[in-house]
Design a protein that fits this description.
This protein is mainly alpha-helical. The protein has a domain of about 50 residues. The protein contains three helices and no strands. It is extended. It starts with about 40 loop residues before the first helix and ends in an 11-residue tail after the last helix.
Amino acid sequence: MKILKGITASAGLARGVACLYSDKAEENISHYIIGKEKVESEILRLKETHNNTIDVMKRIIQTSKGLFDKSTSEIFDAHLIFPRKSGHLEGVVVV
């Protein structure tokens, strides 16, 4: 397990946009059945999107290095931990 440590800016004070997760958010996500003949193309589409996400995040990180000091720009590195974790796309199965 990788542990990320940071410096607390304030004890109990936060400013910014807050996002509250709600089950109602699921209502806006499309749910559909994929036929067996389309499973391979959907897995490929998932992997392509995954790789694109990593590429976009790398560009954001590179841009942040020009905008912020080293310690601040390193915060963005944490966003690549999950997408780079090997095996998290494994287990996609046909049901």
